Every structure is written in C-alpha cells, then in structure tokens.
C-alpha cells in the first residue's frame, strides 16, 4: 500500500487560496516602495549634497548600532538561501507547469524581500561608517554556507519558522529605525520602519498559512510546532562568520550586541511565542491525538518556562570587535 502523504494533500487543499493570500498580504509591484524612494537620487543636482547630509547624520550612530545594521543587512542579503530552501518544501512545486500557487507565493515573497537587502546595502555603502569589503565577504560566506533551520522539507515546520522569523525581523528593523530617528537620522528611521512594515505583512501571511493547516491537520500541525520550539528557532544568519573566521563564530557575538542594544532580546523570543500561541488559539484546537495533546500542553506552558529561565540569564558586556565596523563610534 502506498503511504499517504498527508502534508502534500494538505498543501494541495490550501493551494487554491494562495492567490487570495497574495492579494491580502503582498503589495502589487507597481505600487510598493522601492529602494530609490529613500536614497539620494543620482540624477539630481543635489545628489552630492544629499550624500554629504546622509554621512553627517550617520556620524551620530555608534559601534553597536552599526554592527547590528550590518548583521541585519547581511541576513537580508542571504535571500538566495531562503528562496532555494522554500522552493524545496513539500507542496511547493515550480516544475508542474500548472503555475503552482505556493511557488508563485515563494517568488512574490522573495521579490518583496529582495528590496530589503538592496536598500540597506546601498545605505551602508553611502554612510561611510562600515568596512564594505568585510561586509561583502561575510555575505558571500553566509550564502555559501547556507543554513539549517531544522525544518527539513516539512511545510508545517517551515511555516512555523517563517511565522516566527518574520515577526522577529519586524521587531529588530523597527527598533533600529526608532534608534536612528531618536539620534536625528530621519531617513534611516523611515527606511527601517518601512522594511519592518513589509516583515509584518509577511508574518501575518505565514501565521495564516499555519492557521489553515491547523484546520486541516490539527495533530500534525501541533506536533510540528512543538518540535520546532523544542529545537529552538535559530536565526537565519546562525552560520554568520567574518573573513578568516570559522562557520557560525560571528553569530553569537552579534546576538550579544543585539541583546545589549535591546534590538532583539530573549524577551522578544518569548513574546513572539505567546503571540503565536494566542493567534493559533492553541487552547481551543480540537480533535488532537494523545501525542498532540501532550505537545499542546508543552507549548502552552513553554512561555512561562522560558520566562523563568530568561530571568536567570546574563549576557557578556565586553564588546567583541567586528571587522565590519571601526570602533570609532559614539555609542
Ligand atoms: Fe526582510
Ligand atoms: Fe522577512
């Protein structure tokens, strides 16, 4: 007997709705913002003056800030890894000739995401505050190293991951934007805030996909969610390294930096989990098998458990020195 592939069936049964999801959660290409909307216009007579101003404003921001900006940029620049990964997920099919809805989604999502690395990279280049060559080497390493987020080709796990991760990036871009604005850098503030807006729409879409899967296969979805949380949601840039460094070594130092700056913290991780639990209404999911009941129990208790652990955690204060940024900052 051929074993039924439930995940594939579930993905196929939701697929007719993907067009609607795209209409609700993505913005038509001709209407959405582009990097040029936020950067000095090279055709304008004021171009050089505008760059001068951009560079002046950048001087107000310090070392930790730039390290975080660089790591956020590199994370966005590794988009080829994410698209390749998602295209390989069960039910996403770019080869069937029938314009599979899920592969259209992945392409359209990628196309929106691509603008983030583009605008951030150009801004970093113009700011004069970072060592671009080191940044570029790290980006090339990260794409070459790929990633392993523990989701396999499972759509359920992948959509848990993206639901989580899109909200995490929303938070960090938003905070970076607020900091820039506070320091008088209105342009960078606006740029990061608008990127954060994209991440929020993407988060809303992925959490909707998961909600639909809960409707079709509640036990399978609950088990996949619990499995992802047991492994912990790793960041997409967890393999981050600097020139000459070994795989993953730069990541921990960057996390400490983001934690110190308050851009993305252990508390945010817990808050995201609480939000997901509540949106997916874990407490009211019905028709669970015994194993999935246990998984639900684990997930419902997890935020409080993590909260207790996080209260005991401490983070190193000493600043590791990245090659990306000269330690000449003000913060
Ligand atoms: Fe992004
Ligand atoms: Fe994103």
UniProtKB/TrEMBL annotation:
Highest rank taxon of the organism: Bacteria
Tagged with keyword Lipid biosynthesis: yes
Gene3D superfamilies associated with the record: Ribonucleotide Reductase, subunit A
Pfam family, one: FA_desaturase_2
InterPro entries xrefs: Fatty_acid_desaturase-2, Ferritin-like_SF, RNR-like
Protein's UniProt keywords contain Lipid biosynthesis: yes
Family: Belongs to the fatty acid desaturase type 2 family.
Protein's name according to its UniProt entry: Acyl-ACP desaturase
Organism whose genome encodes this protein: Maribacter aquimaris
